[in-house]
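@channel sequence for tomorrow's demo:
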Amino acid sequence: MRPIKIIGAGLAGSEAAWQCARRGVEVELCEMRPVRSTPAHQTADFAELVCSNSLKSDRDNAAPWLLKEEMRRAGSLLMEIARSCAVPAGHALAVDRVVFAAKVTEAISHEPRIVIRREEATNIQEDAITIIATGPLTSDALAQEILRLSQPPSPSNDQRGISAPRNLYFYDSISPIAEADSIDRSRVYMAARYDKGSADYINCPMTKEEYDRFYDALLAAQSVEERDWEKLNYFESCLPIEEIARRGRDTLRFGPMKPVGLKDPRTGRMPYAVVQLRQENLRADSYNLVGFQNHLKFGEQARVLRLIPGLENARFLRYGQIHRNTYINSPTLLRETLQMKEHPHVLFAGQICGVEGYVESIATGLIAGMHAAALASGGAPVAPPRATALGSLTHYVTHADAKNFQPANITFDLLPALEAKIRDRKQRHRLQCELALREFEIWAEKTELVSAAR
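structure tokens (generated this afternoon):
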């Protein structure tokens, strides 16, 4: 039996490799870093988090919690590691990104069934079991190879008129990170929104005058020049702050600078606007500006961000950046098992298959790894039930409108509606989670999922 080839050792690829190895299947894991880096990565470690350090809400019966709970029950390596290096983040699961990537790299490197190739993959063999998990920064050479595989067999079929994968992309941004000891603590306060969870966030309150001054400076700041070949097509839920600001003077106050639920304990009042900072690592020596991804020149960022109360003398370890995220038109190309329709030995996982978010990327890596291992063992992959978070996620990326396909996070909107109409949202979500976990257990038993992952 030939080893399963996994291209890309990011979140999805690392999880997929682990799932295959746990099922007794040999794996060849190809990662082009450090031979060739990307505009966003800073290290050669596996599963490096390049944007936020948050893996979203960990509150019971939230949609991200449900997805993580299903992954935990499925034996996800990366979710286990994430909890081992969590940092305070209220009701969210956030990690020390350096420790997280180091632990994933160590675990994968010490797994005897995984052989690591530090080289750029540029060729895909259609008859060999392969998982493509190259993420949003897929190299140009491999993107052309994916394009070759993605061509419809005949121009007369119903795929005519669908955008080629090379034209499917959006732009994603990275938030700035400030050194903790450069934040003026006399001007900020610790709190969690609505006092839910522990008070782990640094909050920088603004008066109307301070907000107006910041807003005007932000609009006047110079952005990085757009290249001739670029068409800035931002992902709506991850817009740069200057793009949000251009939509109206109060848009930031209803977005990343929303003060609702963040009463200042020193005044007893809610500020006009607020900037939140979340702990970046276990040492608590750095904080990232939540939702402050941007496409400004570095010098302009320093000038504008230091108008935020408490950040007047901030030292920035990293400024905001922007990079292109590439993804395929999954509804035209993939089955619910993440196999290609025309080349069933080739599977996709991670952001390149049209999911958005760290947890969602890990989830599709887990599923692709399970299915690839089943193929390698002569079995037939069984997709997760539609009622589960895992099943709803893969159902979306393979059944969405192909002409207007956009990457998606896990939300309750992706899950099927309950038969009975329940007006109370919390009760409805609780019942959806209970149904999802029941369906998950039935599927796990049927596919011998839990025992296989041990």
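heads up for whoever presents: Residues 43 and 329 are 29 Å apart (CA to CA).
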